[in-house]
Design brief:
Layout (H helix, E strand, L loop, with lengths): L2 E8 L1 H9 L3 H14 L3 E4 L6 E4 L5 H32 L6 H20 L6 H4 L2 H8 L11 H16 L13 E4 L4 E5 L3 H16 L2 H7 L2 E5 L1 E5 L6 E7 L8 H9 L3 E7 L8 H14 L2 E6 L2 E2 L1 E4 L1 E2 L7
Helix pairs in contact: 2-9, 3-4, 3-7, 6-7
Length: 320
């Protein structure tokens, strides 16, 4: 099994404080591991001298209990929604009872609580379309009878996602072997699934950024993939991307803007003249340079993700 490679980035104000006091090495080798220790167990691995990140085991039964309770309430909401829709078809009147409205609110709140505890499940909203979930759950909708439909679709998207994409490991996202390498500022996640590795990173960032104790040491962080390749196939009239403040200090104008403004990231939007396609070659060159260093946070064209391949390696050491 290989390791998926990610880059840890610190916000500019924190990084500049350590740079100004010539303590960047102290930040990388002491403060970052200390921040990780506030949210999980950290051990120096004797075979590679990297920091192994060992999380507390997630109790999957807790998720199943929460989800089962939500499903029971959602089924009741579904039946009530069918009755509202049936009434509308019969006499063109829409009536939401107070019980229906309260149940819809309770379902949404419970679902949001589960989303916060298990953020990986929200991937369902990206990969499963309304049309697919409507067929899966036999959801009948009408634009005039909208109350309740948002929760119904979101719940059944989560349910379908958990059935179809078990390999993404969204419930036990942190239950993977991973290492922090202070020499390269990389986080190395052992996984055969790119999606599972990304879910691990999302959960780790959520854990660190949600801890006041960890934030006291290094502030809030972001961890981006290191990409091997980026493919701009086809024609694009619009491309949007976000780069983050670099831990290094490359002499580029766009980084100077981030530094002088004390901004953690910059968003760029390139639009072709008069709707004409963009010249892809210079864009791809710039983006690949950012992506290979781990400074490319997001990249989209016409609202869709462009194909990107995250770097993987077979063996790890202090150069990884």
């Amino acid at each position: 099994m290989s390791y998926v490679v990610f880059k840890l980035n610190i916000q500019p104000d924190i990084l500049l404080d350590y740079k100004n006091s010539n303590e960047v090495e102290y930040l990388l080798f002491n403060k970052i591991p200390l921040a990780f220790e506030n949210v999980l167990q950290v051990e120096v691995n004797e075979s590679n001298n990297l920091y192994e990140l060992i999380p507390l085991k997630t109790d999957e039964q807790t998720f199943q209990n929460l989800f089962r309770d939500l499903e029971e309430k959602t089924v009741k909401l579904f039946e009530s929604h069918k009755q509202v829709l049936l009434q509308f078809k019969r006499n063109h009147e829409i009536h939401y009872s107070q019980d229906f409205l309260k149940l819809n609110e309770a379902c949404m709140n419970k679902r949001r609580d589960i989303e916060k505890k298990y953020p990986g499940i929200m991937k369902a909203y990206e990969v499963i379309a309304d049309e697919e979930v409507d067929i899966y759950a036999s959801i009948e909708s009408d634009s005039k009878v909208g109350t309740g439909i948002t929760h119904l679709r979101k719940f059944y998207k989560i349910k379908l996602y958990l059935e179809k994409y078990q390999q993404d490991n969204v419930i036990n996202s942190l239950d993977l072997t991973a290492y922090y390498n202070p020499h390269t500022e990389h986080v190395l996640v052992k996984s055969s699934s790119e999606s599972a590795a990304k879910n691990y990173i999302n959960a780790l960032v959520e854990l660190v950024n949600g801890s006041r104790s960890a934030n006291k040491h290094i502030g809030k962080i972001n961890i981006n993939p290191i990409y091997e390749t980026i493919s701009l196939d086809g024609e694009y009239t619009e491309i949007s991307y976000v780069i983050v403040y670099p831990n290094g200090n490359p002499p580029l104008d766009r980084y100077n803007i981030l530094k002088n403004a004390e901004a953690k990231e910059a968003e760029f939007k390139l639009v072709g003249a008069d709707g004409k396609p963009l010249n892809k070659e210079p864009i791809q060159e710039i983006l690949e340079n950012e992506a290979k260093k781990g400074y490319l946070k997001s990249l989209k064209a016409r609202g869709e993700n462009i194909f990107k391949k995250i770097k993987t390696i077979g063996q790890i050491d202090k150069t990884s």
